[in-house]
Amino acid sequence: MTGQQTLTDEQQAVVHHPAGEHALVLAVAGSGKTTTLVHRLAHLVRERHVPAERVLVVMFNALARKQFKAKAEREGLPASYIQRVHTFHSFAYTVLRNAGRLPTQQDIWIEDRAELQRRCVHAAIRELEQSRRIG
Length: 135
Fold this sequence. Notes:
Layout lengths: L8 H7 L17 H14 L10 E3 L2 H13 L4 H4 L2 E3 H11 L14 H18 L5
Parallel strand pairs: 1-2
């Protein structure tokens, strides 16, 4: 793996964290969280042979997602893994779309896409509350 030797001991611990166990990684901005996550994904792909459909990467915002994808491409990760990188909002949007909870006329929306997503999520929540499926 390229650049593996430049990771700190703490980053190496994240990369080699046991599969199936939760891990919380807290670090300041610019400390290498994205790089560490790219190396973790590369480790899962190359060493543990984890299938792409078993991996989901969720980032806080679109810039972080873009940076992650660029680093993952430079690391030579397969496109099938890089395609499954979402922001929290895009992941929620995908879940709602797949559950059939988004308006059918979304293709004619001309405003900000984030606003459409927000409205759709609120509409879905209202519908679930009215049907008493959530409290």
